[in-house]
Write a structure and sequence with these properties.
The structure is a single chain. This protein is α/β, with parallel strands linked by helices. 24% of the residues lie in helices and 29% in strands. The chain has helices at residues 12-21, 29-40, 115-123, 143-146, 159-172, 193-202, 228-235, 251-261, 313-319, 355-360; strands at residues 45-56, 59-65, 80-85, 88-93, 104-109, 129-132, 149-155, 177-186, 206-214, 222-223, 242-246, 269-271, 295-300, 303-308, 337-342, 345-347, 362-364, 368-370, 374-377. Strand 7, helix 5 (159-172) and strand 8 (177-186) form a beta-alpha-beta unit. The protein is globular.
């Protein structure tokens, strides 16, 4: 398009002639852009199990590679991918460092009643292929806001993103200091125990302290829970340091309570999204006169089914063959948004709803619970 005033400028005729003499640009710019986006931010990835590392009696690391052997999309230490399996999805943190893109290491621990984690541990073998999303998540270090001296409180398999951060620091020779306080149920079930010991021996800016609930005979480390006394004794004054927290759901309210006792500001604490609340009825805004086990009717796309109030809408939808896009399953990513046309829904405290969501009636179905009969629009 030529601007109306272009001809008023000196040299217009010469510039116009040069442009007209150029060979036409027939490149597929839209296709090139699409391929670049797909390379760095793919909606789906095929991942093949190249190796299985037994970390502890309850934990394995699945080393996932592209079937064609090529590099995987880049990620930030602390991010996750979401695996598709058994008609549902589950996010798993990448435990390998971002400096090595020929693989993603996914460290999975057995948990009581764990539908997908236990399925992977019991059935996945070398050569199997799974579908995943690309890397995503906001639980990663931001040097502009998080500083270069951080503390990480981990419990169980919550050490996976911490391991990625540690491998990032050691692999790239970063000056960042990271102090990992790692809680485990027993001293023989400490994930990455040997590597963590080796890392701390070789890198002065990495410190690791273990806290074990049920130690075996001969254990000389700290025991019990990661409480305010343990944090103060091991980490010292927190000051303005950023504190990361990742682990089982029970760790989050406990860690927040302990950090509050130490007068650590909430804005200097980062929690990894880790699933829907197991007991939404314990949250203050759940109506006390509505039992979570009672069933209500959910209607979507002309199909109606019954489900307990205390079951997340996303789980109920998947149980009945309706599968919205999903990833974090923790109220953060918003991929599973649905619109409530009729009825009342409880949005858990974990839901990262926008102002526009409240105005339009949208909820994050992974952390939304139907209080009454509801009608949804996907």
């Amino acid at each position: 398009m030529t601007r109306p005033t272009a001809e008023l400028y000196d040299g217009y005729d010469q510039v116009r002639a040069e442009i007209d003499a150029r060979p036409p640009d027939r490149r597929d710019h839209a296709g090139q852009t699409r391929r670049r986006i797909d390379a760095f931010h793919p909606r789906r990835l095929a991942l093949a199990v190249a190796e299985i590392v037994v970390e502890t009696p309850t934990t394995k690391t699945f080393r996932m590679r592209r079937p064609d052997g090529g590099d995987l999309p880049p990620f930030l230490a602390g991010q996750y991918v979401t695996l598709f399996a058994d008609g549902t999805t589950r996010p798993f943190a990448i435990s390998s460092g971002p400096g090595t893109l020929d693989r993603y290491d996914l460290t999975v621990r057995r948990v009581p009643g764990g539908r997908i984690s236990n399925l992977l541990l019991d059935t996945l073998k070398v050569g199997d292929t799974l579908t995943s999303t690309g890397p995503m998540g906001t639980f990663h270090h931001n040097p502009l806001f998080h500083g270069e001296d951080v503390v990480f409180l981990a419990g169980g398999s919550g050490v996976a993103p911490a391991m990625s951060m540690i491998r990032d620091i050691t692999g790239q020779g970063l000056a960042r200091r990271l102090h990992l306080i790692y809680g485990s149920r027993s001293s023989d079930d400490v994930i990455f125990a040997a590597e963590l010991a080796a890392v701390t021996g070789a890198h002065r800016n990495i410190r690791v302290d273990h806290v074990v609930q049920d130690p075996a005979p001969g254990w000389t480390g700290r025991t019990g829970l990661i409480d305010s006394a343990a944090i103060a004794a091991l980490a010292g004054p927190l000051g303005g340091r950023m504190v990361y927290v990742c682990g089982p759901q029970a760790l989050y309210p406990h860690a927040l309570q302990q950090l509050t006792r130490l007068r650590h500001p909430r804005r200097r604490t980062r929690f990894e999204a880790n699933g829907a609340p197991a007991r939404p009825q314990d949250q203050p805004h759940w109506p006390r006169d509505l039992p979570p086990e009672e069933e209500v009717t959910v209607t979507v796309r002309g199909t109606a089914f019954r489900t307990p109030r205390g079951r997340p809408l996303l789980d109920a939808l998947e149980d009945n063959g309706v599968r919205p896009e999903s990833a974090c399953r923790s109220g953060e990513c918003s991929l599973c948004r649905v619109r409530v046309l009729k009825g009342e829904v409880h949005s858990a405290e974990e839901a990262r709803l926008r102002m526009a969501d409240h105005a339009s009636g949208h909820v994050h179905s992974c952390v939304a619970y139907p209080l009454t009969d509801v009608e949804l629009d996907l």
